[in-house]
Amino acid sequence: MCGIFGIYNHKNAAELTYLGLYSLQHRGQESAGIVSSDGERFLSKIGQGEVQEVFTKEDLDKLNGKLAIGHTRYSTFGASDIKNAQPIVVKCSKGNLALVHNGNLVNAKYLRKKLEAEGAIFQTTTDSEVILHLISHAKERNFIDVLKKVLPQLKGAYSLILMTPTTMYAVRDPNGFRPLVIGKIKNGFVISSETCALDIISAEFIREVEPAEIVEFKDGKMRSYKFSQHVKKSFCIFEFIYFSRPDSVIEGRSVHHVRIQLGRNLYKEYPTEADIVFSVPDSANSAALGYSQESGIPFEYGFIRNHYIGRTFIQPKQKIRDFSAKIKYNTIKDVIRNKRVVVVDDSIVRGTTSKKLITMLKNSDAKEIHLRIASSPIIAPCVYGIDTPTKKELIAANYSVEEIRKFLGVTSLHYISIDGMISATGLKKENFCLACFTNNYPV
Ligand code: AMP
Ligand code: SF4
Fold first, then answer.
1. What is the residue with the minimal CA distance to atom 6 of ligand 2?
2. Ligand 1 atom having least distance to the Cα of 345
3. What is the pLDDT of residues 122-179, one digit of tens each?
């Protein structure tokens, strides 16, 4: 997971990119960076931490130019190290290049070994750098031809923005695993992981970048090229369930409304009598509301989340995660005491968060606890850029639903079915990646 953003042809490119990254903060909090171009030179500021920690007003003032790209990083492949922060900037046989990447290449190791055998020297441990080496090695002269040569060699998930001093390119892999949208602002263009970042700068949504498409922004115009005929749409369903912001629109669907429907389907699949329903905030808010709408059970606030500690799961070390799960939530005891409660969460990964939350509910004297999960059991790791752990750590890969129910100590536990997830999106099953739920990997 990462957030990527770009502005082509606007006098406040860096400032707008800063705002864009600000609303893509949920996609990664480990590092942030912006590179701008004044038409000849690149200027950059990259640092560890959240967007507002990394950039000062003075930094933004120095990032001149009408083009800028930015990145918020969440580490998956590659160590959590400032060297791995993006944008990556290189001076190569094709001139100055800057790149931001969301997704994970599944053949990065293979490509890297091959390139190293040919003499390439890598600066980072990220898979993204491989892309730049391939570009530098390509013999073609026209940049679109270079991309058409390089991109088909990449396997896995990549939504990219590439910048030269005067042009910008938005690219999406042939499976379209990760989102990428195009917007318009005055005479300029915007590229963003999610539409919520278009809204913050009042840009108008144009369309999504298609799978296997290169969109070129050059001489003030936008042009489209296809780089592969082997398109097999496999959009990550987890974007709907957890990752994207509810105010974003993906594949023409409001993420909030999809989540409402997930909650409705949860109730339809497994009707339950209870006094109140509430969410594990914030990611399950919409689903809990949907559950309440479908069931008629009053919607409440059972948990309050401390907003000042970031997303626990995103921090790479288990020890930190254990600690922050405790400080992230508190219960409203008056709401919960002696009640039969339905708690809706978006997913159970390791089960550590749920275990702690359930203990808190018990300590708040809930009479019955019915846990409802707005995704199916996660039985396999993601290799396309989401930080799910190995099979050993995935609770549903090792235990049955009944065993998990006992371990958590809840009155009942129900995960939505795969069909229930799909039908909530209103989209076709064959257009989704469902690998972490089915163990069938599209690439
Ligand atoms: P756990 O079961 O303790 O590993 O954590 C599950 C919680 O983390 C869920 O309630 C989600 O809200 C959240 N979550 C699920 N998947 C991810 C992910 N890939 N990255 C960050 N947070 C996640
Ligand atoms: Fe998304 Fe799961 Fe596929 Fe990864 S494996 S891309 S999280 S659906």
1. 236
2. 10
3. 988 889 999 999 999 999 999 999 999 999 999 999 999 999 999 999 999 999 999 9
**Cβ of residue 344 lying under 6 Å from some atom of ligand 1:** no
Residue 32, H or E segment: strand 31-37
385 has which bridge partners?
Answer: none
pLDDT in tens, 290-329: 999 999 999 999 999 988 765 444 555 555 555 656 678 9
Q: Is 371 exposed, middle or buried (0-12, 13-18, 19+ CB in 10 A)?
A: buried
CB 391 within 8 A of CB 381: yes
Other CB atoms within a 10 A radius of the CB of residue 67 amount to 27
What are the beta bridge partners of residue 377? Answer: none
Query: Of all helices (H) and strands (E), which one includes residue 263?
Result: helix 255-269
List the structure tokens of 76. Answer: 């998956």
Answer for the pair 187, 9: CB distance below 8 angstroms, yes or no.
yes
Best CA proximity match to 304, nearest among 326, 284, 331: 331
What are the C-alpha distances in Å from 46 to residues 124, 280, 337?
A: 14, 33, 48
- Contact indicator for 159, 1 with CB cutoff of 8 Å: no
The predicted model scores a pTM of 0.95
d(CA 64, CA 375): 44
Which residues of the chain fall short of a pLDDT of 50? 311-313
Report the C-alpha gap between 147 and 135 in whole angstroms. Answer: 7
Is-catalytic flag, 2? Answer: yes
Look at residue 311 in the predicted model and tell me its pLDDT. Answer: 47
